[in-house]
Write a structure and sequence with these properties.
The protein is α/β, with parallel strands linked by helices. It has helices spanning 21-30, 74-78, 93-97, 99-110; strands spanning 6-14, 43-52, 55-64, 83-89, 120-125, 142-145.
């Protein structure tokens, strides 16, 4: 039996502080959710192996701090990224409005070879909280709404 080659994909998760980036990563990789909020300092990453069709991928998922004081660390963490996940809180228009800044800053710091075609995914979190409304106005970005609290929409 021939061994399958694994492909490493580096995924960066970005968004304002408190939108659920760490919860997303922990739920997707470890199937664990915590109601306790603990701000990420700098960055952290977990890996997950996934199979798609006949290919095996190792996802290296980077959870980054949402506080502005850590944004200068981006160059070190963003380089070599294969995809960027932009996360916002559907109950916070400010977190949605800030997504374009996160996207632009990512493109500057990551310096991908083809920035116009770099893959971004937009995730609206906290749909389980009253008042949550999906706000999607960007073009050519895949969108997924989810709630870490009720574990829905995470196994995409």
């Amino acid at each position: 039996m021939a061994s399958r080659r694994r492909t490493l994909l580096k995924v960066i998760i970005l968004g304002d502080s408190g939108v659920g980036k760490t919860s997303l990563m922990n739920q997707y990789v470890n199937k664990k959710f915590s109601n306790q909020y603990k701000a990420t300092i700098g960055a952290d990453f977990l890996t997950k192996e996934v199979q798609f069709e006949d290919r095996l991928f190792t996802l290296q998922i980077w959870d980054t701090a949402g506080q502005e004081r850590f944004q200068s660390l981006g160059v070190a963490f963003y380089r070599g990224a294969d995809c960027c996940v932009l996360v916002y809180d559907v109950n916070s228009m400010k977190s949605f409005d800030n997504l374009n800044n996160w996207r632009e800053e990512f493109l500057i710091q990551a310096s991908p070879s083809d920035p116009d075609n770099f893959p971004f995914v937009l995730l609206g979190n906290k749909v389980d909280v009253d008042g949550g409304n999906s706000r999607v106005v960007m073009i050519d970005i895949h969108f997924i709404a989810f709630s870490m609290n009720i574990f829905s929409g995470v196994d995409c």
